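>> received
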Amino acid sequence: MKIYETKTAPNPRRVRMFLAEKGIDMEYVQVDIQKGENLSAEMRAKNPLGKIPILELDDGTCIAETDAICTYFEALHPEPSLMGSSALEKGTIAMWQRQVELALMLQVGMCFQHTTGYFKDRMVPVPEYGKEAGINASKYLNILERRLELNTFIAGDTFSIADITALCAIDFARVVDIRINEKQTNLLRWYDSVNSRASAKA
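>> returned
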């Protein structure tokens, strides 16, 4: 069993944090996405979209997409729970995970791709779109600030996959100069707590 990833990319970090919280050791194979190694025929055979991370099982079965990989390991190792135990917990965590992924992680990613030209050899950057995506990401931090006024963690009283996604998105957002501001005290409190976990260094 192994995971193909790029150490500096935010989505692989989400998986590493998830597995670290579970105490699961893993073999990681580095793929140079800047050079386009993820777009090779070999990698597209594992994931037709040419994206990482990709989990490859011992029998050759491949599971791509960060959420799918985490769901696989949650089923194999349900404790400690990072995706909820009861129906209510599962639904609430899934809701916040989805929102954080779409309204923060994706927006930061689009801001990065379309304003920096990092992947201009394989896509057409639209700077105006990238700028708007960055604005959207910054606005979502305000939503998290209000949410964390009443909750210890994003999905409630316990640490979950939604917190992992948010931390990785916020850290990656620094490359496009999106940061928590000093007035977002609840978000800062949450960030210090989550960033101090051992898994944050995975």
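>> Strands lie at 2-5, 27-30, 54-56, 62-64.
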